[in-house]
Amino acid sequence: MNSRVLTEAGQKLGNYWKAIRTGNEVPTRAAFKLTSEIAPLMPHMVIAELADGDLVFRYAGTGLVERQGMNITGKRYGDFAEPMQVARAAARVKAFHATPCGFVSVHREEYQRGFAAEVEVTGFPLRTDDGEGRLIVMVVTPLGTVPYTRTGGRPIFMAPATHFEFIEVGQGLPDGEAIVQWAEGTAMTEGRRGDR
Fold first, then answer.
1. Where do the domains of the chain lie, and which CATH numbers do they carry?
2. Are strands 163-167 and 45-51 parallel, antiparallel or unpaired?
3. What is the pLDDT of residues 66-115, one digit of tens each?
4. Which of 20, 76, 84, 157 has its CA 20 to 30 A from that of 56?
5. What crossing angle do the helices spanning 176-189 and 83-98 adopt, rounded to 10°?
6. Contact 130, 153 (CB under 8 A)
7. Model's pTM, two decimal places?
C-alpha cells in the first residue's frame, strides 16, 4: 500500500497484527492479547464478526462509545449503514480471510447529538478460536470534524467510504472490483438498495 499514509494508530495496529501472526494464517482472537503495544489503542478499537451477511460489533472501545454517544457492542453494521455498504463490508471481510490482508478506509460518521467527524478505519482479520468464525479488528481514528447534515433517524450514520484500499501483508491482495460486483449482485438479489 503506497497511496495513503496510515495514522499512527493504524500503523500500530498493523505492526501488532503482523507480530502475532504465525506463518500465513490469520491470527486467532486468543492471540490478540492486551499488551503494552495495543493497550493505548483499545479505547478506539472495534471487533466485529461476520454473521448472516452483516457485521455484528462484538467489542467497542470506550473512546468510541464517548464520541458516538452510544455503545454499539451487540449492534449490527446494518443498523447504521446503507444495505449496499453492508453487502460490500461482508464481501470484504470474506476476502480478508481468503487472502489475508488489511484495509484502510475513510468515511464520515454523523451522530444524532448534532455533529459529524471524518474517521480513518484500519482493520485486519482475526479467526474465532474454534477457527470457524470470521472477525475483523479495527482501530477508528478521528481525522477532524465535518459539516453535520442528519443521521436519517439513526443514532449514528456511517456514510459510504470516500477512500478504501487493501493493505498488503505478503500474500497478495483480493480483487477489489470483483468484490464490489459480487456485493452489488448479492444486494440486488436480496432486494437491498443503497449506495457504496
1. 8-189 (3.30.450.20)
2. unpaired
3. 888 889 999 999 998 888 889 888 988 998 898 899 999 998 888 877 77
4. 20
5. 130
6. no
7. 0.84
Closest CA to 64 of 4, 121, 26, 126: 121
Contact between 115 and 68 under an 8 Å Cβ cutoff? The reply is no
Report the Cα 87 to chain-centroid distance in Å. Answer: 13
The string of pLDDT tens digits covering residues 165-182 is: 889 888 778 776 666 665
